[in-house]
Amino acid sequence: MKLLTTLFWLAKASRPIHWVKNLSLFCAIVFAGKLFEIQLMEKLIIAFLSFNLTTSSSYIFNDILDSKQDKLHPVKKNRPIAAGKLSIGVALLFSAFLGVASIFIAYKLNFIFYVITLSYLALQFLYSVYLKNIPIIDILIIASGFIMRVYAGAFLIDAHLSVWFLLCVISVALFLASGKRRAELNIIEGPLVTRKSLTKYKKELLNSYVTMFGNAAWMSWALFTFFESPSASLPVWLMLAEVSKTTTINKLLMITNPIVIFGIMRYEHLIFQGKSERPEKLLLSDPYLIIAALSWLIIVYYIFYGGIAIF
């Protein structure tokens, strides 16, 4: 019974809900038009499982170092280590096991993916030990985690991602990271120091970051859809193109721009309500974001794989 209880708390400390972030490993295969290439998909599924171990290892290690501060936090105080449900010794051993296992799998899978995995773990170690206390640097490191996920998937399948997509990934990552910090300021009341870097941020500064990166995110996506959309191939589009140049449709992905703008506006709305401290939870719980995300995914899938476009 004690073993089962320990396993339960270890599983909870691993934060499986955060694994949704690792789905960004699949971005490259979708936009490269290779979604149904079985061998590549098998590699990415293994990489996804490997990166789940990687991120869980870093989360547990961070929780060990933050356990005292987390006890003062209105939400984080319920985490297994901060709540005293899991001993630091057991948690540290499990974190090390997950880290080693992820490195081993990554090494067997692909050398560049292995290097990215090592780099991610090293960066998260430095973040947990010290860098999370430095304002601006902490946001950049959080954002870099999203970027590394996307490009780990790209390197694994040897896919090209355009510069516009790179700018989009960077902008979205910075938007989510700055939004996370902005929401944390809403949750923390009074002079409690649950995160040192928060004491050096002003709401006005983080507001400007959120606005700046939100604008950059939708604009870079719009540029990506304009320059990188696949060409239309269905007769109806070709017929319209013959009728008038005004109706020429070779920018099909631009259909998704209103959805992206709505999604960013909705997320900013939640940020200023203090609800974006855990973006992965919002993406799985907010009905408006869920509808926007599903609509975006369906349209992107239909454009790339529904037979209405050619590459």
Description:
The protein is an all-alpha fold and 311 residues long. It has a domain at 1-161: UbiA prenyltransferase (Tetracycline Repressor, domain 2), CATH 1.10.357.140. 68% of the residues lie in helices and 1% in strands. The protein has 13 helices and 2 strands; from the N terminus they run H-H-H-H-H-H-H-H-H-E-H-H-H-H-E. Strands 1-2 form a two-stranded antiparallel sheet. Helix 8 (163-187) packs antiparallel against helix 9 (203-228). The longest helix is centred in the first third of the chain and has 28 residues, at 38-65.
SSE string: HHHHHHHHHEHHHHE
What are the segments in which pLDDT stays under 50 over at least 5 consecutive residues? none
Shape: globular
According to CATH, what is the topology of the domain at 1-161?
Answer: Tetracycline Repressor, domain 2
By CATH, the superfamily of the domain at 1-161 comes out as UbiA prenyltransferase
CATH architectural label of the domain at 1-161: Orthogonal Bundle
Strand order of the largest sheet: 1-2
Number of strands: 2
Radius of gyration: 21 Å
Number of helices: 13
Helix content: 55-70%
